[in-house]
Specification:
Chain A: Keywords: Ligase. Chain A: This is Acetone carboxylase beta subunit. Chain A: It is an enzyme of class 6 (ligase). Chain A: One of its GO terms (molecular function) is acetone carboxylase activity. The complex is a heterodimer of chains A (719) and B (775). Chain A is α+β, with helices and mostly antiparallel strands. Helices cover 32% and strands 26% of the residues of chain A. In chain A, helix 1 crosses helix 9 and helix 6 crosses helix 7. Chain A starts with 12 loop residues before the first strand and ends with a strand. Chain B has 775 residues and is an alpha+beta fold. Chain B is built from 21 helices and 22 strands. In chain B, helix 20 crosses helix 21. Chain B is globular and about 80 Å long. The chains are: A alpha+beta (719), B alpha+beta (775). Chains A and B meet through helix 4, helix 5, helix 9 and helix 13 of A and helix 3, helix 8, helix 9, helix 10 and helix 13 of B.
């Protein structure tokens, strides 16, 4: 799936993107011309650097460049990996202590009951006996309380009793904890007590002669909802610190090979941050975000403002929206069955992908897709898989979507007859359908689910698909692109020829961006006098300035001066009394006056009416600003988008691979087969056709047409 | 055969609004006649669409269901009320033209039935003619006399039209925080008749052209204390209904009205068949009998009610008999249940049966195919005049849940015995917790506004143990399996009460080989409130759940409140403060810290409005769940974990679990060898204490003949006997009582007001009530 220019004598390797998964480590090198190459190697969890080096060597071999030569040229590198997430899921983090309010020591181990069914499908959410809690990140015996209370206005109810803080610190230090997390109620509003406790703990740690990092929630995630805030702050000590060590090791070992930069890491807010960043827990997210960033970058370069990003892998369908060139951010997301307070690129997942199992409910005969899947074992069609339940891939094989002899470049052979027999017995006969119609029906059902999902996400943001370009990528994305976009009326549907490597591409294209958030409680009645509006503007401005300092400090750590940083302020607003706010990018770079405030309110009302319904607007309640946001970024080198000259509409002869029987809409047709890599920009293909490459298959059924543009992007159209 | 439209038959006649020209009443009558005569919903013996186009059928289901779920998730963000936004106390449901539900979102799905009952009430009472049902109308209902659970569940109902004809309805419900009843809070206790329950709305048309009427907006906000919650809750419901209406219109535009129409009826029959198949697969035919109780302790100074006839201590009683037949049909009979009473714990038949249906979706039919089909697949008998099918229009409903939850917990036991017999050990559940306490009250809050509070921490009670593992701690409530206790920082926004404690409630779980889940407790200090009141609502004298197969029930409730605490001075002087949990109520720690305080610590777990001032304390204790199996069979390692984790008090580990403990460095450690010996000993003691059942029965019989029982027990039986001669007959036969033995309320020295005279709402002029159960 590599995209080459013909003869490039002196290659200048510029960008390295890394996707370190649990089993495989992918590297993605981009040169100054925008050419790229992908390397693969087995992951080495005990020392990730080894797997990375191996993967790099593998990738660079295709270019005939030695590792040291390439790394000397590299301008920048971005890491994303699943190690931190796995550490949390497997509860293999550091031994942390937790200090909370005395009397409330149980709240972390209690969790929120919602964590007992987070990530469950509809059926299991209502099925009580399936609910379960995961163990707390910090056990109760490593939790201590301090006597103090601050109320929701930030007023002190019980002054801090410092001796209780000292006692808590000493007991935890005596138990040899590897980190101490402090989270007191309403510390986002008045951090004085929490910071005093922090200083007492730091002092006690110092005295003990031990080296224990201390994390106060107000210094990291000063936002309301203690379970979210505490979970997230614990992740800093529990999971992020070990990752910091790993990243340092990787950075060092690459430096030994000649790199001259610090690795950046993909973060939840969609930018990349340094491994030295204070808030490293936000790098817990990885893979799927990369594709969204890649789509955003492509959009910026090619001029698409509204993009629906869709990514189908073996187990899930992930959708994210870019509106007006901006990512959608969720502020209290959940991950690894924990509620968190991180800004996270909003990405919704349906537990249905190419490997999803298909079953009939034994009681209602309803067709069920997933939520479990065959994963790398494909389906019944692979004799060695040991799988007996039919999967979506089995349907693809039966219907001629996939080439049974060229799955993963022929790495495994699929047996169509096995798939036919299994679908007949498990789905077709019980429903009274032919095997073809049953398999086609299942695909239609999956496509329809995905299509509805896309549609509801877009309409949930107050838009119509007509104003969106849909990007489809991921290994299995292009197989379904036609199915889940049909009839939605997207402005354009785009399948990058490098669909399977798109996430790694996205990582390499991510901005170097920090984002800081702060809770605020600015409340104005609808008839607030101008003086109050002005005061509100000033309070917000003050918060922006505080956050600005945090952002600039992070960049300073990485050697960037303030004047190199582009700052983007934002705020969160709601109608007074509501519990959910909306994130709005500020229409003004700074605010100070009544008129400024009114502009903020107008921006909010516009968005609210779009997201919910015009009838849900409630300006008569007045407005609250609940949070200030500051984002800052600096320019970094990014991969270039390939640009090749366009040829004629007719594909070159060497691209044509023959025909295959293909079933859709109750009839068999002969689909034209093409080799994706051999197609030239400008080529136009009318369905039924199937465009194959080792890593993905792009299906163009009858009624559709696609053409390849100079950026090696396929455009799919209904004709 | 399908639910055909009758274009020809009705041509020329005065057309009704339903697709094809029937009136709503004609349409529903036709469906119900066909259902009755065929045994299949709407007479649908075959499912034409599903059988000929299974893919399309599944697509319709999946798309509509996803849309309804999505509407709930989106719309709830409009709300200001934490019980809607944080606890998810809302639900949206799609109905066919006859008011039978096709599919629903998650949430408080009991209202699938109650909103359907409201639609059917409009159909049966000629709403089509007056006030008229038109496209873009908006209706509101909260009337518990026609099926709602209690007045604080407000329904918004919107008809769906296609090309000028009605093709269905969508309903949205939220649990509002206040309905302007006698006391603040949504489930208040002070009133004894429904006139004190607060604002009552009977299927009123409140808007047209998608716009709410101004008189409605003005009147409704005057009727409640918490107007902002009220307004935003209503916008939540309306927005959700409109999203779903739009979805249906889009689906029809794409798939055709004919297919949608077939789907709207076949889905219900499909749901009915689904239940029948599950019953066949999961249970064993036969009769399952069980019983539930709860206390109504009103003869107490802290229960301030307006009427002296209500000042009695009574016990509510619900025996039940589940009959499962070989073909997977079943019947649930509640003969012998108590009469309705002068309190707020009465329930309409629809809320009782819909709630059972909710329970079934958590255990027997947890599939996406849940709709009114299950209701048509279940025969209910609820005798008229009982607390769950009252025959008097004065009865109050505001906390119907008090006994609903305790009645249903017994059904878990019945079903679980059946699951156990079939080997579905994972599905066994010893029962649900009593979903209390309800912290409620009101006054002026921290923002100096008139306010009411209604903490929903009760959405996270302990759950019942299964036959393979412990119940979940602080996890769920029978009325919403997606339980959550919420963040303290959010409750403190909504309530002028700061947390001084949130702790797992030690010893609250029922003991057993597998213990129930523990509940938790929150200690709240009044802060920044003015003219403030609060009250308690929960079980106290009676454990309202039971254990299963040797497991114990969960601990019962109690109350703790403290006034004039002097905590202000304790804070200033740096003295010890009451913080955390009331870990061992028999050996209380807080009381000693507050020597001058007026402390209320007793089993009076139901009270009415009581004044509270800043620095007063209120303990919100959320109950645990019942246990499974003999505690002597519990692995000692699990008991050690319970001790170390603070789930169990050491003396109960010894007394109930038969372990022998040693003290090691402030920790109680189980002595394994001594425990083996001690457990053997206990088994011997049990045998020594035992006697033949026949001896025990004979002794009990003598007490019955002599009427040796507490007044409350006698009143409970007397009320049941009066309503059901069959129950009296069965009782006498079982105990071999003399023919002239009888027990009558009039003979007891307590008021029996309401025992002899009643008048049902159906007796009002021009009212047709809809009968949903065998009475």
């Amino acid at each position: 799936m590599n995209v080459h220019n013909k003869d490039v004598p002196a290659r200048n390797v510029q960008v390295l993107g890394i996707d370190a998964g649990g089993t495989m480590t992918d590297t993605f090198f981009v040169d100054a011309d925008g050419d790229f190459v992908v390397g693969k190697a087995q992951s080495t969890p005990q020392n990730e650097a080894i797997g990375l080096i191996n993967s790099s060597v593998d990738g660079l071999a295709a270019w005939g460049i030695s590792l040291d030569d390439a790394l000397k040229q590299l301008q920048t590198g971005v890491y994303s990996g699943t190690a931190m997430l796995n550490r949390v899921v497997q509860r293999k983090g550091l031994k942390c202590g937790l200090i909370v309010n005395q009397g409330l020591e149980d709240f972390h181990r209690m969790g929120r009951a919602i964590q007992a069914y987070l990530g469950y499908a509809y059926e299991d959410r209502i099925h009580l006996n399936t609910h379960r809690y995961d163990p707390p990140l910090v056990p109760r015996h490593l939790t201590r309380g301090v006597v103090e209370r601050v109320d929701m206005f930030g007023t002190v109810v019980i002054p801090l009793r410092e001796e209780s803080a000292l006692k808590a610190a000493q007991e935890l230090i005596d138990q040899d904890v590897e980190g101490i997390v402090i989270s007191l109620l309403h510390s986002y509003r008045n951090p004085a007590h929490e910071r005093r406790v922090r200083d007492i703990v730091l002092e006690a740690v110092k005295k003990s002669g031990k080296n224990i990092p201390v994390f106060a929630s107000a210094d990291y995630y000063p936002v309301r909802k203690e379970t979210h805030r505490t979970n997230t702050t614990i992740l800093e000590g529990y999971a992020a610190e070990p990752s910091r060590q790993t990243l340092k090791k990787i950075s060092d070992s690459f430096k030994e090979h000649g790199t001259k930069f610090d690795f950046r890491v993909m973060a939840t807010h969609g930018g990349t941050i340094s491994w030295k960043a204070k808030e490293l827990a936000r790098t817990i997210v990885s893979g799927p975000i990369g594709g969204v960033i890649g789509a955003k970058y492509l959009g910026e370069v090619l001029g698409y403002k509204n993009i629906a990003c869709s990514d189908i892998g073996g187990t899930s369908f992930d959708v994210a929206l870019i509106t007006q060139g901006e990512l959608t951010i969720k502020n209290d997301p959940d991950m690894a069955r924990l509620v968190l307070s991180l800004p996270l690129v909003a990405m919704d997942s349906v537990g249905a992908g190419a490997g999803s199992f298909i079953r009939l409910d034994p009681y209602t005969k309803a067709i069920k897709l997933g939520p479990d899947s065959a994963g790398y074992r494909v389906g019944v069609c692979w004799a060695d898989s040991g799988i007996e339940t039919v999967s979506i891939s089995d349907c693809h094989v039966v219907l001629g979507y996939l080439n049974p002899d060229n799955f993963l470049g022929g790495a495994i052979k699929l047996d169509r007859d096995r798939a036919v027999a299994a679908i007949k017995a498990q789905v077709a006969d019980p429903l009274g359908l032919s095997v073809e119609d049953a398999a086609a029906g299942v695909i239609e059902l999956l496509d329809s689910d995905l299509r509805d999902y896309l549609r509801s996400m877009i309409s949930g943001k107050g838009y119509s698909p007509a104003s969106f370009v849909c990007f489809s990528y991921g290994g299995a994305g292009p197989v379904h692109t036609y199915g889940y976009t049909e009839g939605l009326g997207f402005e354009d549907v785009i399948v990058p020829a490098w669909a399977a490597g798109f996430s790694a591409f996205g990582c390499a294209a991510a901005d170097f961006e920090y984002r800081y958030d702060k809770s605020l409680d600015i409340n104005l009645p609808p008839d607030a006098p101008d003086s109050d509006r002005e005061a509100a503007s000033k309070t917000l401005q003050q918060a922006w300035e505080e956050l600005r300092e945090n952002v600039l400090e992070e960049f300073r750590l990485n050697g960037y001066a303030a004047d190199q940083v582009t700052l983007t302020p934002g705020f969160r607003m709601q109608y007074r009394g509501q519990l959910n706010d909306l994130e709005i990018e500020s229409p003004l770079p700074a605010v100070a006056t009544t008129e400024d405030w009114n502009q903020l309110v107008d921006a909010f009302n516009d968005t609210y009416g779009r997201v919910y319904a015009a009838s849900a607007r409630s300006p008569e309640l007045g407005y609250s600003v609940t949070g200030a946001i500051m984002r800052g970024s600096v320019p970094i080198p990014k991969p270039k988008i390939p640009k090749e000259p366009e040829h004629g509409p007719t594909p070159p002869e060497e691209a044509f691979l023959g025909t295959r029987k293909f079933y859709r809409k109750k009839r068999w047709v002969d689909a034209q087969l093409y080799r994706m890599e051999a197609l030239l920009p400008g080529n136009r293909i009318t369905g039924p056709a199937i465009i194959e490459s080792d890593a993905t298959t792009f299906v163009v059924p009858d009624g559709f047409e696609t053409w390849l543009d100079g950026h090696r992007l396929f455009h799919l159209k209904e004709v | 055969m399908n639910v055909n439209v009758r274009k020809d038959a009705l041509a020329g006649a005065a057309r009704g609004i339903v697709r094809g020209g029937e009136t709503l009443k004609q349409h529903r009558d036709r469906l119900m006649d066909a259902t009755k005569s065929s045994g299949h919903y709407a007479g649908l013996k075959g499912l034409e669409l599903r059988d000929t186009q299974p893919i399309l059928y599944n697509k319709l289901f999946s798309r509509l269901r996803a849309g309804v779920v999505d509407a709930r998730e989106t719309a709830k963000k409009i709300a200001a009320s934490p019980i809607v936004e944080q606890e998810g106390e809302l639900c949206f449901t799609l109905y066919n033209a006859a008011g039978d539900s096709i599919l629903t979102s998650t949430g408080i799905i009991i209202h699938v039935g109650t909103m359907g009952a409201a639609i059917k009430y409009m159909i049966e009472n000629g709403w089509e003619q007056n006030p008229g049902v038109a496209d873009k109308d908006i209706f509101c209902n909260n009337d518990a006399l026609i099926g709602n659970v209690h007045p604080c569940d407000i329904h918004t109902i919107v008809p769906i039209f296609w090309e000028g004809e009605l093709i269905g309805w969508v309903g949205g419900v939220t649990h509002v925080i206040d309905t302007g009843s006698v006391g603040p809070g949504s489930m208040s206790t002070g009133q004894v008749q429904r006139f004190g329950d607060g604002y009552s709305i009977t299927c009123r048309k409140i808007g047209a052209n998608d716009t709410l009427f101004r008189d409605w907006l003005h009147e409704s906000q005057r009727m409640v204390r918490t107007t902002r919650y009220w307004v935003l809750d209503e916008r939540t419901r309306v927005a959700g209904c409109h999203m779903i209406r739009k979805l249906v219109e889009e689906v029809i535009a794409e798939e055709g009205i004919e297919n949608y129409w077939k789907f709207a009826y076949e889905a219900v029959e499909h749901g009915r068949q689904g239940l029948q198949n599950r019953i066949k697969a999961m249970t064993i035919p036969g009769k399952y009998r069980q019983v539930g109780f709860v206390d109504v302790p009103y003869d107490h100074p802290d229960v301030r009610v307006p009427s002296d006839f209500a000042k009695v201590n009574t016990i509510m009683h619900t025996p039940s008999e589940i009959t499962i037949r070989g073909d997977g049909t079943w019947r649930l009979d509640f003969d012998g249940s108590s009469r309705w009473g002068w309190h707020t714990y009465n329930a309409h038949a629809v809320s009782f049966t819909s709630g059972i249906w909710v329970m079934m979706t958590q255990t027997l039919i947890p599939s996406e195919m849940i709709n009114d089909g299950a209701a048509y697949g279940t025969e209910f008998r609820l005798p008229k005049g009982t607390w769950m099918n009252p025959d008097d229009r004065r009865v109050a409903f505001s906390y119907a849940w008090h006994f609903l939850v305790s009645s249903w917990t017994s059904l878990w036991r019945g079903l679980s015995r059946s699951y156990f017999g079939r080997g579905y050990l994972e599905e066994v559940n010893s029962g649900n917790a009593n979903t209390s306490n309800w912290l409620q009250g009101g006054g002026f809050n921290q923002y100096d506004e008139i306010h009411a509070v209604n903490s929903f921490e009760s959405a996270a009670e302990g759950t019942g143990a299964s036959a393979v593992k412990d119940g979940l701690d602080h996890a769920a409530a029978i009325w919403n399996p997606e339980g959550d206790m919420g963040d303290m920082e959010i409750w403190e926004l909504a309530e002028p009460l700061v947390y001084l404690g949130r702790k797992i409630k030690t010893n609250s779980a029922g003991y057993g080989k597998y213990r129930g889940g523990c509940g938790f407790e929150s200690l709240r200090m009044v802060w920044n409130a003015k003219d403030w009141t609060m009250f308690f609502m929960g079980n106290g004298h009676i454990t309202s759940d039971w254990g299963l197969m040797g497991g114990y029930p969960a601990a019962s409730g109690y109350r703790f409140a403290a006034h004039k605490t002097n905590i202000k001075a304790l804070i200033e002087e740096g003295k010890p403060l009451p913080l955390g949990g009331d870990t061992d109520p028999e050996n209380p720690e807080w009381d000693g810290l507050l020597p001058a305080a007026q402390i209320k610590r007793d089993k009076q777990a139901i009270t009415t409005e009581e004044m509270f001032a800043d620095y007063d304390l209120y303990l919100n204790y959320l109950r645990g769940g019942p246990g499974f199996g003999d505690p002597l069979d519990r692995e000692t390692a699990r008991i050690q974990e319970d001790l170390d984790g603070g789930y169990l008090l050491p003396r109960f580990a010894e007394r109930v679990y038969g372990v022998v403990l040693q003290h090691e460095g402030g920790r109680h450690v189980i002595d394994e060898d001594a425990t083996v010996a001690r457990r053997l000993e206990i088994r011997k003691e049990r045998l020594a204490k035992s006697e033949p059942v026949s001896d025990w029965l004979a002794r009990e019989r003598e007490k019955i003949v002599a009427k040796q029982a507490e007044t409350q027990v006698q009143q409970m039986f007397a009320a049941s006997f009066k309503l059901s001669p069959k129950f009296l007959g069965d009782f006498k036969t079982f105990w071999k009582l003399p023919a002239d033995w009888d027990l009558r309320e009039e003979d007891l020295d307590i008021p029996s007001y309401g025992a002899n005279y009643s008048m049902d709402v159906s007796e009002l002029p021009d009212v047709t009530t809809v009968k949903f159960v065998d009475e």
